[in-house]
Amino acid sequence: MLSGKIALITGATRGIGKAISTAYAKNGATIILNARDASTAEAFANQLRNTYNATVHVVLFDVSNSDEVKNAFKEIFKFTKKLDIVVNNAGILESSLLGMVTENMIEKTYATNVYSLYYVAQYSARLMTRNKSGSIINLTSIMGINGSSGQVVYSGSKAAVVGITKSLAKELASSNIRVNAIAPGFIDTDMTQNMDEDKYKERIGSIAMGKIGSAEDIANTAVYLASDMSSYVTGQTIGVDGGMLI
Amino acid sequence: MDNIKKLTEVFTEALGVNNDIINDNLEYNSIPEWDSVAHMSLIAELEDSFDIMLDTDDIIDMSSVKKAKEILTKYEIEF
Predict the structure, then answer these.
(1) Is the dihedral of CA A53, A57, A62, A64 positive or negative?
(2) Which of A30, A120, A139, A237 has the fewest beta carbons closer than 10 A?
């Protein structure tokens, strides 16, 4: 489904980012993996090369640092003048009740979950404009749509992702660049595996389908949004949450 | 093609104007054709024609044809 397409995935070596990178490689895309740790990224890149015969480039940068993003795109520009898909997946989650929220937590969360979208989208859109084609996929969260007690910072940052997605979709539509978001619900990743047992059960109880989602469930939607199957879809936020209510 | 001629063609194409108005003194927003939307088309054409990737700060600073030449010189394009 993605043969001939070049995809950049941020936060590509863990959880949902890893599942999306794997699904894209499996579907024939050339992968540009972003991570911060070189050894983890290279090991994962080799795995994709060996398993799917995929072309994989590793570009190390911190998405929250505008200079690093700029330099990364200069590096990307050296080996490709074309970018078809960008998945803004890198993000952080810190839970805290309002009274315990620190300025540092707000700054760190917004820098990684929100500012990064502007930095990456600016450079991506310029590469995509050259070919009058592209798909930008932003990872938000069900928390960004419905809110959640104890996650006022995280949910605020993810709500911003929805607004950015809608505005970018309108601004870039004339260049045939589509911008959509995926809002995962309760997904089986490192983050959820470390949860308190009672909290875990409570979360499962809030899901209409009665089970936790997998990173592959998110990756399947990311393949759809990256592919030509969704060529008339833009400005949308797709919930992948098994009917979760929070 | 020399770079002056190439630059003039890029401005002409991106802004949809006659080449006789392209000179060093032409400034951003001084004509209706060079608005913010056209500016982004201009950037795309410049990057494509000169095979460069401009910094965001340079895009914002590109306030005239003269300034465009100065900025492109930083990317080893000579005029």
Answers:
(1) negative
(2) A237
